[in-house]
Known about the structure:
Elements: H1 31-52, H2 57-80, H3 85-113
Helix pairs in contact: 1-2, 1-3, 2-3
Amino acid sequence: MSDLPPAPPVPPDLPPAPRGGSPSPRAGGSVLLGIVVGVVFIGGCVGLAFLLVSSVPALSGVLFWAPAVACLIAGIVLAVLPRTTRFGAGLLIGFGISLLVSAGVCVALITRIGL
């Protein structure tokens, strides 16, 4: 008997791939750039506030807190937008790094003074 084996089943047609699916993993900016910008921005503003505290005491608080709040708000807004998600996340990480380093310097100075 020379019966041929049955033909394999034909797979059903697959639906087309969705357009505009998930963005590429590198989309949305650079986290490292956001970290650097956040640390330099906050460090520069804190340094400027310390330099101006003796000449213009009324503005030292504004120069210290306003940039910190602006950096925090900008980081949140940029982290929500799809094109700048990674940069915004880096900005928030840089803000956190600046906060930790500033707190460490503050504790070191207070300990050195002996308060």
